[in-house]
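Sample entry (247 residues):
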Amino acid sequence: MSSGLEGKRALVTGGSRSIGAAVALRLASDGADVVLTCREDVGRAGEVATRIREMGRRAVVVRADSADPAAVVAAVDRAAEEFGRLDILVNNAGTFRVGPLEELALDDFEQTVAVNVRAPFVASQAAVRHMAAGGRIINIGSNMAERAVFPGFALYSMSKTALIGLTKALGRELGPRAITVNLVHPGPTDTDANPADGPAAKEIGALTALGHYADPGDVAAAVAFLAGPEARYLTGATVNVDGGFTI
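Predicted structure, serialized as tokens:
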């Protein structure tokens, strides 16, 4: 199956599991070759790559810690080297550090900003050197940037809110080069870190208008749309895939 991304080359950071894996697989099913990064779980990333190859697409796994800016740049350059160019960048890798304000350590702050803010900036900066007109940058944020309903989310929400400004500013700056930049805010999603059958899932799901968690594929579908030709006039936008959490 393919749909609009034939011949495109994509890089998905944090592509070994959950939303990142779903995005990598969806882009491949729509026709793209995919490089995916992982920090530690090379085995799971390899499984995703195998499934992509079974679709007839090329897949490469790059081990890279998104907290290390040099590793982020190297991963982007490796993707462009492997495929000859880069058409799509999905800044998905993230870290989730929450807790009472007075208990958060400076290291929590530094790591959160490094992974959730600096890495998307550095990856985007590196990627545009390899992108031609029609390029796509898609950032993965969080519904917590718009509605922090639980205590302890100050640091995480701050980091994801920064992506709104980054997305808008890059959308303006890269528009003349026909490169679009958009942001996806997932809401409660069935992932390893936040399973739909977890102890607080019923209460969290009830905060959405639809009353339940998303599947990672729901988020991946929005990313695939933004990566495709039908989204060519959409830039600087935020797409909430949150079941109505923020309405």
